[in-house]
Amino acid sequence: MKRSRIGLTAGLAVAVLIAGCNSGGGAKPSKTLKELGKDEKASIKVVYWDKSYFFQQYGNLFSAKFPNIDVQVVSMQGFYSDGKDPDEEFKKLIEEEKPDVLLFQSPDMFEKWANDGKLYQLDDVIRQDKFDIENILPSVVEQIKAKGNGNIYGLTPSFYGQALFYNKDLFEKHGVPLPKNKMTWNEVLDLAKRFPKDGQGDNRIYGFAENASYAFSDKKQVAFQMMNGIGATSGLSFVDPDKGAVTIQSEGWKEALLMTVEALKSGAVFAGSDEKFDPNKPMMMDEMARKDLFATGRLAMTVGGSYMISSLQRAKETLKDVTPVNWDIVTVPVDPKNPEVSNSVSLSGLFAVNANSSNPRAAWELVKYINSEEMAKLLTKSEDGAMLSRTAYAKEREGRSMEPFYMLKMSENNLYKNYNKIPYEFFYKPFNELAGNEIQSVIEGKKSVDDALKTIQEKGQEIYIKAKQEQDAKNAKEGKDQKPAEPAKN
């Protein structure tokens, strides 16, 4: 599913936990938090993606600032292994470790916990401590409040965003006008079609690629990802999680599929590769860089997250025989009906305090420090590529303006909105493979667009029901009260 493109970094795949808390539910927090005394000791237990990375990123600096707080780390290596539902794994971890401070990767799960009264409301303590949230990107604060019914239940030092990266030299060489902010998909693909399509081997260039790397370019999945991207821009969703219904047989998805097929058949868009890669044989960094069409100067445009900037810098340092890309960015393609918002901008890495914390002051100090102006200054030097919520420290990178990452507001109409209600196994493989096969059949002229969407709809619904039944059975076995899945009424 699309969230795999998000490029999870260690700084985002985190849960921070403080030991010694009560396990009761729904406690009402006090309106003030008394500061820790100078000699008052506290023990902080942190569950993080990697122990050494935590201390490098936050731990050493936090411990120096709060020497009376002992910090311990529990590694999360393997937390996002294939076949595991990360939301379920997160819940289990919370139950086992009984934390004071949580970091939510999923905004939907954060919203649920906030609305269930499981998180500490931070509005009062923010005012009490005069903690500056005025210089945090307004759309970040707005979305946090939207998730908490107008209140603040968490903070994030960074957010996920994407931009349209383009190769300035290729545009100038072929006399194609440079991309602009807030272009539509039609405008982006029209630019792509103005590049030559007759090159061979290393001389073959492309106007656009949904995924610039040969290493992750199975033709069926490239087609599926491209349709995803176009559909998400228009606020489309594959599933209505409240009704348990697959929703791909619609005019909106038909338009997205037609645009995808036409673009891939044009030859202007990279349609994927037949080259096979062994997933059990990791590639060296230089080999990976050589498989990247954009990094090697063979691609005019691609959509990528902010982490791509670090990847381009590493390619520049690794590929000494390749001319570094003269790149720049504009906003991702937008919906012409709603050009000020984007699904590519989303909350991630939300730190929150457990409402049942026995040491809420220590918990808040950690959350406050991680989201502070002081930390933002330090994170500007980080190489993980995350976009900082405090905009004063994210003006440019590598001499390029980062404004396109901050220009669009977050959209509530998300391709994977409420995805935590959707069975994990539905998106893990079966539905993606089904859709990819059907889209490829249209590209090859074996099926019509309408027939392909009908098949994806019908077989996709069967996959959904099966995945829901298996999830319910698993939950029942674990003692959870779940209703069996019923076929959706279309």
Automatic annotation (TrEMBL):
Q: What are the protein's UniProt keywords?
A: Signal, Transport
Top-level taxon: Bacteria
Q: Name one Pfam family in it.
A: SBP_bac_1
Annotated localization: Cell envelope
The annotated region (Disordered) lies at: 467-490
- Which PROSITE patterns does the record associate with it? PROKAR_LIPOPROTEIN
Q: Which InterPro entries match?
A: Bact_solute-bd_prot1, SBP
Major subcellular location class = other
Gene3D superfamilies, alphabetized? Periplasmic binding protein-like II
List the GO terms this entry assigns under cellular component, sorted alphabetically: cell envelope
Please give the family membership noted in the entry: Belongs to the bacterial solute-binding protein 1 family.
User: What's this protein's name?
Assistant: ABC transporter substrate-binding protein
Q: Which organism is it from?
A: Paenibacillus elgii
Where is the organism placed in the taxonomic lineage, from the top?
Answer: Bacteria, Bacillati, Bacillota, Bacilli, Bacillales
